Fold this sequence. Notes:
Elements: H1 9-14, H2 17-33, H3 35-45, H4 50-57, H5 61-68, H6 76-87, H7 89-97
Helix pairs in contact: 3-5, 3-6, 4-5, 6-7
Amino acid sequence: MNKLGRADMRRIDATNEADIAAQQVQDELAAMQDTEKFAKRVRKRLGLSQAAFSLRIDVSLDTIRNWEQGKRCPTGAAKALLKVLDKVPEAALAALSS
């Protein structure tokens, strides 16, 4: 944006799909580095309270709280589950309900 807050149309027009994909990767990496925000974002996108989220993904409420407060970081399977819930929430929740 320029100083007046208007979009730089030349820059926008010069942006290609590869630029957009690269920015998406950077955005995802930044979100994953801040795991408390990532875990909370995933839960909120699903429209679930901490208690309901813990029941749906079979993780203790204390663990959910610890993730969201930055006291603990999801690792391994939990981190993978959060990624799947973020990318394909309907399919992930359906698989967890089976």
